[in-house]
Amino acid sequence: MLLGSHVSIAGSLAKPFEDAKAIGCDAVQMFVKPPRKLRGVKDLTDEQIQVWSDARKGSAVKAIVVHANYLINLAPAGHTGEYSRAALLDEMKRCHQLGIGTLILHPGKCLGEPVEKGLANIAKGLQWCLTKGREYDDVTILLETMAGQGTEVGHDFAHLRAIIEQVAQPERFGACLDTCHAFQAGYELRTSEGYRDTMAKLDAAVGLSNVKAFHLNDAQKSLGERVDRHAAIGKGKLGGRGFQQLLQDPRWRTTPGVLETPHEDLAGFAADLRKLRKLEKEPFADKPLPGQRKLAS
Q: Is 102 strand, coil or helix?
């Protein structure tokens, strides 16, 4: 796996690469605009784009993904959905301008809508973005697996498939598995049997070939509690065992896996990366992992 962390763009679009070098990232995740502001964000300037391009050329980072604004919510009808569509389209534009091909999105919260209606609204919002943003067809949107807290969808892998099936261009979509979210949604990762079962369910829902990124987070809460609380690697209920098989699975050798663990400085992320690289070398699985089965979109 290409291991790394979420990094900041505060002050300069060169900062992600500076931070990545400081903590030893092979992959990075970043925002391309303030994560909690839907509207009124200034466009990227030519100067900012050039700073980004120059910094990227001088970096050893092998994979870059963007996390979309936290406030984007396509599930409800009305103004929230409308503002969210426009904000997501702007995220796609910024990814296109920076040459980043992967955009990770929280599917949404129903906020009173029935789940089926919420999933349909998400698909309609995504289709609107694809239609309006035809020139951004180099950007793949990854729907993130969620913990299922409150009215959010995505805690059932089948939700992701239901959304993608309703979009006219399913090849433009994939999935990002968050270890904390999946575990707290009820998917086991700590045992051989649990890991195989979770991967089989993910395969059946979206196809493992469409899983294009991982968020590597330990979990403060227990299996199936459906509460989204991240923990540092090895400090939560997943523990080291919850990461070993994922890290050693050959199917994910070139897939980015980024930290979103709760640290206030780079030293914490560097320590978590060291833990992950150690776990990557400590065998756990008692049988060879199955070959990857590619499913139609």
A: strand
The DSSP secondary structure of 27-41, one letter per residue, reads EEEE-SS-TT--S-P
User: Contact 220/237 with Cβ under 8 angstroms?
Assistant: yes
Intervals of the chain under pLDDT 50: 291-297
How many helices (H) and strands (E) the chain has is answered by 9, 10
Gap between the Cα atoms of 185 and 193, Å rounded: 17
In this predicted model, what pLDDT tens digit does every residue of 188-209 receive, in sequence order?
999 999 999 999 999 999 999 9
- pLDDT by residue (tens digit) across 107-141? 999 998 999 999 999 999 999 999 999 999 999 99
Q: Could you give all domains of the chain from N- to C-terminal order, each with its CATH number?
A: 2-279 (3.20.20.150)
Q: Which residues does the annotation mark as catalytic?
A: 36, 67, 70, 106, 144, 178, 181, 215, 228, 230, 260
